[in-house]
Amino acid sequence: RCLIHLNGTYTGKTEINLFDMTGKLVRSEVSEKTAGEAGINWEGLSSLARGTYLLNISGDGTNCVKRIILQ
Questions:
Q1: CA 71 – CA 66 distance, rounded (Å)
Q2: Buried b / exposed e along 38-63 (16+ C-beta atoms within 10 A)
Q3: Residue 30, helix vs strand vs coil
Q4: CA–CA gap between residue 14 and residue 42 (Å, rounded)
Q5: How far apart are CA 68 and CA 71, in angstroms?
Q6: Helix extents (H) in 1-71
Q7: Quick one: how far is CA 23 from the chain centroid?
Q8: 10-64 pLDDT, tens per residue?
Q9: How far apart are CA 25 and CA 3, in angstroms?
């Protein structure tokens, strides 16, 4: 399980995409965020291989890409 903390700039439709290092989309989710929500709880990441991934979060005119490591 992974809890993704979002700051207050993400409201409304928020899209979260997880890519492996070859650029292949391995997980995607669209969520409706309301003001004051702290994050998104993502289940099922334990089925992915250990390694480095790119997490892309976009919504409300904002886009953020972070590198994450699954161990």
A1: 16
A2: eebebeeeeeeeeeebebebebeeee
A3: strand
A4: 13
A5: 10
A6: none
A7: 15
A8: 667 888 899 999 999 998 888 776 655 556 667 777 788 999 999 898 887 888 8
A9: 19
